[in-house]
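Cont'd.
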Amino acid sequence: MRETWVVGAASNRFGKMSETGREAATRVSLQAIRQAGLGPKDIGYTFVANAFGISEHQAHVGPLINNGLGIPDVPSVTLESACSSSSAALHEAFVQVAGGFIDAALVVGAEKLSHMDTLSATSYFAIAADYAFETKNGATFPGLYATLASAYRQAFPTKDEMFGAIAVKNHANAARNPHAHFQKEISMATYLASPMIATPLRLYDCCPFSDGAAAVVVAAKEVMKSPVTEPLVVRASARSGSVTDMQDRPDLLGLPATRTAAAKAFRQAKMEPKDIDFLEVHDCFTIAEVLALEDLGFFPKGSAASAAQEGTTTRDGSLPVNSSGGLKAKGHPVSATGASQVVEIFEQVNGLAKGREVPKTETALAHNVGATGGSCSVHIFARR
Amino acid sequence: MSEPLPSAPHTIDEFVRAYEDSGKLRGFRCPGCGLVTATWGLACSRCGAADLVETELAPTGKVAAYTVLSVPGDEFLNDAPYAYVVVELDGGGRVTGWMPTVRREADLAIGERVRFVPSYKPGVQFAKDPGPTATG
C-alpha cells in the first residue's frame, strides 16, 4: 500500500444554499483541488456522495461535476451510505490511491434539503432507516436516536444538563466556524426551554436540516513532491456495518458498527485512543456524541455523558470533540458531512481554524455514521 | 451447481398484511443459534445460517425503550404525539411498533407490559396490557 495523503479540503457555508447541489459540489471541488496546488487534470477519479440528490431531480451527478471542472473524461461514481456517504467515498478513494490504481482522487459530498419543508425532509431522512420495519411502524430519525437515548438513560443515570452541555459546547464551537450553519452560542437555559421533538430529545439535541457541500483531495505521497499544504497522512481508513434494525440489536446502549470500525482503524493505524489529539464524531443528536465517545473506546460505557459538562471535550479540554461545531451546530447536509469532518481536521492542522484552535494537532480521528449505525466509517489522520 | 436458495416462508408484504389481516406477529426463528427476529431475511442476522423457520411471535411483552414523538413522518402526520416503542416479546424476539394512546413521556415506562393490537392503521400497534386480571 502506498502512503496516502489528504492534500486539500474545502467546504462552503452550511445552512441554506441558493445554488443546487451540483453547483455547490463543483465549486468546493475546484477550491479543494486548487488548495492542494493541483489542477483538475491531476484527478484520476471522482467519488461523489449525494444521497438525496434525487429530491433535486438529479441522479448521476458525477459526470456533471467533472464536466463542470473541465475533466469530462475522468471516471466518477456516486456512493450512497446515508449520512456516512462521503466518508464511504473517501474510503473508496483511499483504496484506489493507496492501492496504486490512481495517483489522486477527488471526494465530494453535497446535499440540498432546503427546498423541502420539515415534514418532507423528516420523511426523506426516515427512508434511510428500515422502511418496512421501522419507518412504517412510526419511526423517524430523531425518534430512533431518542429510543437509544431512553435506553441509555434507563441504564445510566443521566441529567438533562449533561446532554445540554454537549449542545452548548458544539454551538460555541460552531459560532467560531465560518462554514457552520448556526454561528451563534446558546445558553443552558435556551437548551432546557426548547421543545421536545422526541422524548428525551429536545429541539437543541437535534442537528438541523442543512444544505452544504464539502470536498477533499486525496493523493499518493510519492506524487506530491512539494506539497503546498500540510498534508494529513491517512493512517487508517476503516468501514464497518451492523444489524440495521433497532429490534435486532443485541443491546441498545451503543452502535456496534462504531465499535468494529474503530477496532479496525486503531489496528490499521497501530494506535490507541490515547494517541488521538482531537476528534470529529457523528453527533446528529447529543446522545450520538455520547455513544460515539464510548463505542470508539475513549470512555468506558456509561461514562461519556458528563464529558462536555466536565470540560474534557471542550476546545481547550484534554480531548477536544467536534471543534467544528459537529453535525449538531455546524449542520448536517447528509452527504457532505463525512467530507466536512475532514475539512475541519485539515483546517486545524493547517492553522486555518482561526478562533477555534485546539491545543494539539498531531493526530485526529473522524467518525461518521450511516443512519442509526447500519454503516460506520472511522478515519485516523496524522501529520507527516 | 450452486446450492438452491432458501425459500423465504413469506414476503415483507405478508409480514405487514399479517398485522392487519390475521392479527398475528410474524417472525423467524433460527434453529442454529436460537435467534428470534421479526425482521425479514433469508439468513440469520446473528449466526448467518440460512435455514430460518417461520414462527408466530407472542403478542405480549415489555417495553425495552421508547420515545414520544411530537414531530412525525408523513405517514403518521395526524397521529402525533404518539410513542415509538421497542418491545421485548414474551418467548423471545423484539419488535418495534407504535402506541397511539401514549401521548406524554410520563404515560409509559420502560419495563411496562404491552400487548399487540391488530389495527387497520399502518404498522405494528401496541397498547398497554391490562394483564390477566382483566378477564379474571
